[in-house]
Amino acid sequence: MKTFFLTAMTMLIVIMASAQHTNILIDDDQSGGQPSEPSIVIDPKNPLHIMAGSILNRYYYSMDGGHTWPPGRLTSPWGVWGDPVLAVDTNGRYYYFHLANPPGTPFADRIICQRADSVNAAWNQRTYFGQDPVKLQDKIWGTIDQATNRIYAMWTQFDWYGNPDPAFKSNIRFSRSTDGAQTWSDPVCINETPGGCMDDSYTVEGPVPAIGPNGEIYAIWAGPLGLMMDKSTDGGITWRDHDIFVAGIPGGWTYTIPGINRCNGLPVTKCDLSNSPHHGTIYVNWSDQRNGTDDTDIWLVKSTDGGLSWSQPARVNDDQPGRHQFMTWMDVDQVTGYLWFVWYDRRNHEDQNTDVYMAVSRDGGASFSNFRISESPFVPYANLFFGDYTNVSAHNNVVRPVWARMQNGLNSIWTAIINPDIIGMEQDKPFAAQPVATFPNPFSENSWIAYKLSEPSEVTIKLFDALGNTLATPLDHCRKNAGKYVEHISAQKYNLKPGVYFVILERDDQTVVRKIVMVN
Asked: Are 41 and 88 within 8 A, CB to CB?
């Protein structure tokens, strides 16, 4: 039987990736609230628990791996004004960073951090940092050192937002908390060269703090000099005297995409903390128009020496020149070391129809497998705000992107259940030209396998453990008419324990294998 299992595994049949990654609607607000700029985070201690957010004050949580999303709204004494950023610590406490809009004081005069002590708990703690009665605080991003639970936050401070006078500057600010966001350090400026205040390519923006293997903090932002880096080796107490040049951004970090209200290519920085061969590598992902205003591309550079030197930019999108790819985000799976990217993509269209694509690199950024995840394209309206970014979170092959979609002038927020097992493999005969999917996956008590037959077929479904032992045969050469079918996999019925299993579905001379994971 193990020989059969291995044979079946080698016969893994892959259909078009766009049909394999089930799209899940998170927020379809028809009131005109226009949710966008989504953020998402998976709890590494329990990947079934996921938190997401979108502007201005929305949050959503999932306790089933991203299949369902109860919603909520944030409040605070200082207002809630967008730029949502989510993080989770090793105690399962969630943190939601956002801008402020306090009554009677200047807009965005501080950065707010709210904390919930579990994925479905109330936001019971609210603190702020970076308050300034005159200057504007914008484009926050935060992260948590999983070794210490220290929280690090970075953002842009504008002397006078929107003022073209070169006397007014923008700078990158940093603050940290060592007590679960109860208190924050006094902000410090970490960039050597300031930018302007017009919120354009001459402004310094976009730092996403990344933690190195020895607790180093890396900050990389975009500005008039391109991508620049600063680094702290003592938890953010001190920083380098001189910034390091990472890469140029020909055309600048702001650019025009037809049909999009505004667009930017701000960088995303991550560091590999896994036990992969690429442990310690720093990655920076962004987009720009170096190949022309009609050809926006996704880029990646990396450093293997702590940021002292950087590779030449590698193009992540693998389409032919002449199409737009924009609003990228990246995460590193800290178990596998794989890099996961998400962005909007127009490779399949000559107009403003827009798809959502992802890519994965399993070799430290040497190569990329691109795949579409949106089930259908959409057309944005240039006169409506669409936000500034997408997002993705990955842990131990659980990968959840999040993006905004515009339909009939209204925004909605979506995720997808990514199946890493099928990405990058050669397409063989499709299973009756229809998808085969398992859900939820991971699961705790029940999972289902859904499939569709385009013609009458004889179907067998078998359940194997990771060693190839047959555990059950839910269907045994059962004749099925053309149509849609869902078969139940019960942990209790089949005496399953937490672990990895494989479901093999056979139709006549075709075989599909799906991995399912049971968790506590």
From this structure: yes
CA terminus-to-terminus distance, the chain: 28
Q: What is the pTM of this model?
A: 0.81
453 located within any domain: yes
Looking at the chain, how many residues does it have?
A: 520
Indicate the pairing of strand 355-361 with strand 398-407: unpaired
Give the whole-angstrom CA distance, residue 398 versus residue 418: 7
The string of pLDDT tens digits covering residues 310-339 is 999 999 999 999 999 999 999 999 999 999
User: Is the peptide bond preceding residue 380 cis, with omega within 30 degrees of 0?
Assistant: no
Please write the tens of the pLDDT for every residue from 422-459.
675 433 333 343 467 787 888 888 888 888 888 888 99
Question: Which CATH number belongs to the domain containing residue 487 in this structure?
Answer: 2.60.40.1930
Residue 7, classed as helix, strand or coil, is helix
Q: Quickly tell me which residue has 């127009």 as its tokens.
A: 346
Residue 504: domain span? 436-518
Q: Tell the burial category of 320 from Cβ atoms under 10 Å away from its Cβ (0-12, 13-18, 19+).
A: exposed
Please name which of 423, 400, 426 lies closest in space to residue 413, comparing C-alpha atoms. Answer: 400
| Token pair for 501 | 């299993």
Edge-first strand order for the sheet with 457-465 is 470-480, 457-465, 499-507, 510-518
| Domains held by the chain: number | 1
3-state secondary structure of 207: coil
> Residue holding tokens 């499939």?
451
The answer to whether residues 105 and 192 touch, using CB atoms and an 8 Å cutoff, is: no
Residue 6 has phi, psi (to 5 degrees) of -65, -40
Q: DSSP letter for 205, please.
A: B
